[in-house]
Amino acid sequence: MNAADLPVMPDLCNRHFPFHCVTALVLLKKLGVDVTKVQMRSVGCYENYRGEILKQTPSQGTTLTDRVQITLDIGQWSAVDLLPYQFFYGMTGLRTRSSGWEDEARALMAPFDAATVRGQANADYEMLKFALSTIDYEHLQRFLGLFDIDSRHDVADRKEANFWAALMPTHHIWAGNPHFTARILQYMFGNKFTIRENIPTSFDIPLAIRSHLGSRFSRLGSELIPGKS
To answer: What pLDDT, in 10s, does the model give residues 25-41?
Structure first.
């Protein structure tokens, strides 16, 4: 893969546009980053109680190759904040005291705290697949296949794939309406279209699918099954 095709590290610590830790992982996953390799350390909610990113490594604009290790400090509760401090500090009554035990305890519990955040991010990402702004390309290809569009041959790039994914459901909904179909054709080709029906006519409802009030069978829908011979 060329360097121009590799993603770059976004600014997740911007104070004007703060990122929640779950949102940050969803964004990184959208960029093609394996979030299982992203290291996170929960520093508690004292500096930030909203779960935002407080510190990131590498810095903004760094090319994310396979050798780059991403580390995030997040403002979220850790198991350290919920367990008695003696669990990590010990009960031997040491005279030399420092805050180093807290940093070591947070580093110890970081894999477990990170697993919780990853689980939330994966759940959100699966739901956001149905939104075109965050959908992954494989899912987009399967979606276009429902409309007989082969993304390998009929679509030039991802931008065009997003265009067809947004357009085709609307086209199918209004395919029986000449006015809206003409508008869709205008959006597609830029020219003005007018669809005129040749013969305005009306059709009688077949007797086989007519329903009468009080009928013993029709009221249950047994005679209204489409395709019944």
So the answer is: 888 888 888 888 899 99
Per-residue pLDDT tens over the stretch 84-120: 766 666 656 555 666 677 788 888 889 998 998 888 8
Alpha-carbon dihedral 69, 70, 73, 76, rounded to 10 degrees: -120
Residue type, position 132, single letter: L
Q: Which of 40, 106, 36 is nearest to 73 (CA)?
A: 40
Which stretches does DSSP call E strand in the chain? Answer: 39-42, 53-57, 71-74
Quick one: which of 199, 197, 225, 196 has its CA closest to 211?
Answer: 225
Whether residue 58 is preceded by a cis peptide bond, meaning omega within 30 degrees of 0, is yes
CA distances from 128 to 8, 23, 125, 132, 186 (A): 22, 11, 5, 8, 30
What pLDDT is recorded for position 229? Answer: 41
3-state helix, strand, coil in the chain (%, to 5): 40, 5, 50
d(CA 34, CA 8): 14
CB 49 within 8 A of CB 13: no
The DSSP-derived string for 185-206 is HHHHHSS------S-----PPP
